[in-house]
Structure formats: C-alpha cells, structure tokens
Specification:
The complex is a heterodimer of chains A (about 350) and B (about 120). With about 350 residues, chain A is mainly alpha-helical. Chain A has 18 helices and 1 strand. The longest helix of chain A has about 50 residues. Helices cover about 50% and strands about 25% of the residues of chain B. A 5-stranded parallel β-sheet of chain B has the order 2-1-3-4-5, with helices on both faces. The chains are: A mainly alpha (about 350), B alpha/beta (about 120). Chains A and B meet through α1, α2, β1 and α3 of A and α1, β6 and α5 of B. β1 of chain A pairs parallel with β6 of chain B, so a sheet runs across the interface.
Amino acid sequence: MTIAIQPTTVPEYTLYAYTVLFAAVILLILISTSFYLRLRKRRFMIEKNVQAFFDQWLGQMLLGEFSEEEEIEIPGELQDRRKYRVGRQYAINQLINTKKNLIGLASRNVIYLYEKLGLKKSSVSKFHSRLWYKKAKGIYELYMMEQRDLQPQIQPYTNSRNEYVRTEAQTALLAFSGFKGLVFLGTLKYPMNSWQQVKLLEQLQPLDPGHFEALPAWLASANDSVVIFALKLAEIYQQMQVKDEAIACLKHDNPKVRGQAIQTLVRIGDDATPAVLEGRYLWETEHNRTLILEALEHIANEEVLPFLERELENDDPAVKLRAARAIARNVKGGLGILQHKAAAVSEPYEKIYLHIKSEMAR
Amino acid sequence: MKVLIAEDDNLIRKTIEIKLAKEGYEVISCAEGASALDSIRSEQPDVVLTDIMLPAVSGLEIVSAVKQSEGKPIKVIVLSTMGQENIVEEAFKLGADDYMTKPFSLTELSIRVKKLLQSQ
C-alpha cells in the first residue's frame, strides 16, 4: 500500500525554510572546502618556495666549515615568524632526513644549522604542547638533533600514559645516553610492546655494551614486559651473572616471561640448565614445551637423555623429531641411539633417523 | 670527468652534486630513474651514482641498462640503505662496481668515485 503525500499538507513557508536551510548547508560546505583547498595550496606554495632555495642553500651550508662563534645569515623564509612556520617545519624535516642519510662533516653541520637557524625553539614548543602527537614529534626532533640538554625534561615522559609519547621518550633516552638510558626500565609502569623492544635493541646494537648492574632488579620487575626485555638483554649480551634470576623466571606467572627465560638460558645457562628445563617441561604450556625442546636441541646432555628418549615415544611427530635432534646433536653416540631405535621400530624412526642424518651432513 | 647522480631525495642529491662539483667533476643529476636513463644515453658519464629505490625505473634497472649498453664502459656505484643487502647482491650480479650504505660520508663517496675512475 502506498501513502500519497498531499502537497497541501506541508505549509508553503516550511518548504521555503527547508530549501533555504539546504542551500545554506551546501554553501557552507562549498565555502569550507574552498577555504581548505586554498589553505593547502598556500601551504604547498610556501613549501615549494622554501624547497627551491633551501635545498641549494643547505647543500652549500652542509659542506661548509664553521667555527662555533660564527654567525650565519638566516634566510627570510626561515625567519622565526608565524607566517614562515610551514617553511621552518620543512627545514626541520629536511635536516632530519639528511642526518639519517649522511655522516661526517655534513651530519655535524646539520646540528649546527638546526641550532643556528633557531629551529630548536620550534621543536621545544612542540614538546611542550598538550597534544600528544605534537609532543611525540617534538621529542623525535630533539633526539634526532642530539639536544641532550633536554634529557632531564624528556625523561619523565618515558612513563607517559600515551604510548607514542612514551616510546619516543624511551628512544630519546637511549639516543642521548646509550645503555645508561635504560634507567627508565626501573620505573616503567606501562607495557613495552614487542616492536618497541626490537627498536630499542636495534638502537643499542652498534654501541659498546655498558654495565648491567640494574639487570637483577629489572628481572624482578612487576612489569612483565620489563622482565622480558631484561631477559632479552641478558641473552644478547650473555650476562651470565643473572643466570639464577633467569632460572627464577621459569616459574613466573606469565607464560611469555617463562618462554623468554627458556630462550635466554640457552645462551647463559651451564651444565645444570638442561635438567632444570626438563624439570619445568611437564608444567609448561604447549608453546613453551616446544621452546624447551628447541633449547635442548642446542644444550642437551647425558643427564636429560632418559627424558629425550621418553619424548621420542611422544604421539606428536614434531616432538619426536625435536627430541631426536637433541639426542643426535648433543649426546655422545646420539646418532647411534637413533639408528638402534630405527632398527627396532622402523616406522617412523627410520625416516627420523635418515632426516637427522642428512641434516647433520649438511 | 662526468658523474651522473640518480637520487630522488632533493637535498641528498643536491649535497652530493655540490660536493662532487667542488672536486672538479662535471655533475648531471636526476630525480627519477627514467630521466637518468635518458641522460646516461645522451651524456655518456664516466660514473653513475644511483639510489636503489627510485620512482618508476629502479636503481637495479639502471645498473642493468648501463652494463648492457655497448658504448664506453661506465662505472656504477649503488646507494642502498640498511637491510637492502639482498638487493645490493643483485646489483653486483648485474655488474655494479661498488656500493655505499646510507648513512654515508660524502668524503668517502668522493674517494670511491676517484678510485673507480683511476681503475678505468
């Protein structure tokens, strides 16, 4: 059934009112779109103008020899005025990009120019902003430009509620102080995600390892991600002195911590470690059991041979294979044990024996 | 001696250009792979410095084109970034003569250009 609207039911003045309202809305949309496009065009033109002279000017400046006292003439487009804000941001971005791509004199000159052009003021102002994305960008610019004097002010933000601000502040601390910058781990309340951990470890990689006095404290942290990160540090930098703390982590409530402890103990454990890992096997999750067997592939010894022989009988073929690998690689006459097993029970042990044999021949 | 730079980052390209010009080289610079290939054909440089990642035509294609051309022998230095080791290996297979990983030193770059030219 269709309902016909009678034109006479809508008063004429209402129709006019709606038409005017609709036209006004359309007009408003057109005006704001045009305003936005003009703004973008203006921004683009300023950036293009700055780019045109800046690349040439900066290219010359980056190869110059400057003395500390030397004053440089700041080009008009980079003056510290509101209308040149876009140009100044372009200059900061370009300097950061150059710092990432060049080392030596040019890289040193980047910092010199950043300071002499007064661009630090712009970064500091972003850092003091209440908007998280500006604050994070400000911190990024400051550590990229090696502004170490700002470290005391940035340090509290390693514990910021905002993840982006927090991760930039943590990166900044390492950029300023290397291994000493890890001091924030002692007070960190929020979790460090895996990506941030990878980034920080990569950042530390080219540096000379420092002292790890605080490692036991980090391994006992109430923040699980700090414990995991500390275990990774102990593993990478082979911090044998925290072996007992790493073993204690095998009984941690969080399975991820226990999993990392298993991996760490491969690098920092001793002759007793295989038996310790065997002792935890029954209590572990499926994933961590796999990690234990993978660890034993590297560090098993005669002491855990009965356990590995038991696991050879496991229903899961992947477990059988890992146990066989651990025996063959680490136990004296291990390959012979597998050969003997294959002779007694051909399926599947013959395949496993031949597979491991070919692996070891590679 | 002519050096051609194929690098899409304006400032890096300009800085290399100024550095090499100061060393007395005639420098041709291109922001894109396609224009670099055209300039290589028309200008016949002695050395080509090319970034691996270029818009449209990649650095590898430039290496391949240079090494397959029948004109005078042209030396090629590839500019790569960390983590591009496989691509650098590919560039060497195609005939690249040297490579530098970003961040690099301009002084080292100019020494390598000089050594390559001496070895010709």
